[in-house]
Structure formats: structure tokens, C-alpha cells
Specification:
Length: 253
């Protein structure tokens, strides 16, 4: 019985159920559907948005922007982090830049990209990428610093080629850090994408939230927000968590 109650899927379900119960209690205490409607009151607007095609379209646009920002942010951030972690000279030169971008508010970068490039997709994606690269680089720098020197020595003894060394020695050690950066990256990127859409796009979940915010329609704001949160929870449970468990397996084997 105890083991059953500790099952990850059951714990996750019970935790989300507790959150839903708190929502129901809060909505009952508020007693005003225009402020906080009950969860079941969202069903009708959800079906309407889904059947009209508006929800799938805007959800798809946001997901597309998340993917377009996530891939370059991870690639560039991993490369910079590895470079800084392995080469002290590069770290000394790039660390001030990293500190500046880590402390630069996301809103400032978004506004500047829109002002400099225009209200287009290039500016939107670039703003998200620039906001995420420093976080990925910081995590990977620590991962590169933590590489086992004994494994490096072994690779030299066996005269492993650079690509074989990268594949069999470096990447397995960096994989948990890359997985951690990816999990946190998805969570941060989609939030920034919503801000980007809120400020300067004509499609996406953020745009729809802005639209219904102007109409003071709390129900539709919740419908669009929760729809995307639901998708991201599925991505987290079906893709990111299994991938992270797999890349960490060798450490506990």
C-alpha cells in the first residue's frame, strides 16, 4: 500500500487534484464567476474555442515559436557553456557578458528587439533565444567544470579520436546537465513566448490572453492559459522526464 502511494504517476495525479480542490474552494469563497469561475464553468468556452478552430490555431502558433526558440537557444547555450567550462581564458572574457544578460530583464530584451527589428517573427524568436542562452550556458559551464579528469586521462591513454571522445566520454557526463537545462528551458521559454505574443504578435496564446484581458473575460483567459499548460505538462511527462531519467541512469548503474 505504501509503495502504491509513492508511485510517481499517482503522486502527480493527487498533487494536481489538490491544486484543483484549492481552485474550487477559492472560487466558492470568491462567489463571483467574473473574478474566478469554477473549473467546470470553463467547459463551454473551451468547447466553443476548440470547435471554432481558434484554440488549435493559436496553440499551434505558440508551440511553433517555442520550438523555434528552444533549438537555437540550447545549441548555442550548450556550446558556450562547454567552452567557458573547459577553457579558463574564454570563461574570463565571456563571464561579464553572461552576468549582464542574466540580469537583463526579459521585458527589456523583448522591447528592444521589437524596436530594432520590428514587430515580426524574427524579432520575437530572437528575443526569446537571447533570454534563454545565458541560463543554458550557466548550467553547462558547471557541467563542463565537473567532467571527470580520470576519464579524460583514460581517453588520452587509449588515443581516442576527438569525435569518439566527445561521444563516449564527454557527452555522457554532460547529458544530465543538458537534460536539466532543457527541462528548465522549456518552462522558461514558453513563458517568455507568451510575453512576446502579448506585446507584439497577432497570433498565439499570449495574443489571445491579451485580447480577452481587454474584454475582462477571465474564463477565456483561463481556457487559453490552461490549454497550453496542459500541453506542456504532457511534454514534460512523456518526453522530458523520461529523457532525463535515461541520461542519468549510467550514474546509478
Amino acid at each position: 500500500m505504501t509503495k502504491t502511494l509513492q508511485h510517481p504517476a499517482l503522486v502527480r495525479t493527487l498533487s494536481l487534484g489538490l491544486l484543483l480542490a484549492l481552485w474550487i474552494v477559492a472560487a466558492r469563497l470568491t462567489a463571483d464567476a467574473s473574478v474566478l469561475p469554477q473549473p467546470w464553468a470553463l467547459w463551454t468556452p473551451f468547447v466553443k474555442a476548440l470547435s471554432s478552430g481558434a484554440l488549435p490555431y493559436h496553440l499551434g502558433m505558440t508551440l511553433w515559436r517555442v520550438v523555434c526558440a528552444f533549438v537555437p537557444a540550447m545549441v548555442i547555450g550548450v556550446a558556450l557553456g562547454f567552452l567557458m567550462g573547459r577553457f579558463p581564458v574564454a570563461d574570463r572574457w565571456l563571464d561579464p557578458w553572461l552576468v549582464v544578460f542574466l540580469n537583463l530583464p526579459a521585458l527589456v530584451l523583448i522591447v528592444l528587439c521589437y524596436l530594432w527589428i520590428g514587430l515580426n517573427e524574427t524579432a520575437a524568436i530572437l528575443a526569446v533565444v537571447l533570454n534563454k542562452i545565458p541560463n543554458v550556458a550557466t548550467i553547462l559551464r558547471e557541467g563542463a567544470r565537473a567532467l571527470d579528469p580520470n576519464l579524460d586521462a583514460m581517453a588520452q591513454v587509449y588515443r581516442m579520436r576527438p569525435m569518439a571522445r566527445l561521444r563516449h566520454v564527454v557527452l555522457p557526463q554532460l547529458a544530465p546537465f543538458i537534460a536539466g537545462a532543457a527541462r528548465s528551458g522549456i518552462a522558461v521559454i514558453w513563458k517568455i513566448v507568451l510575453v512576446v505574443e502579448f506585446l507584439g504578435r497577432s497570433s498565439g496564446i499570449g495574443f489571445q490572453i491579451h485580447f480577452y484581458f481587454q474584454l475582462f473575460d477571465v474564463a477565456m483567459v483561463l481556457v487559453y492559459a490552461l490549454s497550453f499548460i496542459g500541453v506542456m505538462l504532457l511534454v514534460e511527462a512523456l518526453v522530458l522526464q523520461p529523457a532525463e531519467r535515461r541520461v542519468r541512469r549510467w550514474r546509478t548503474a
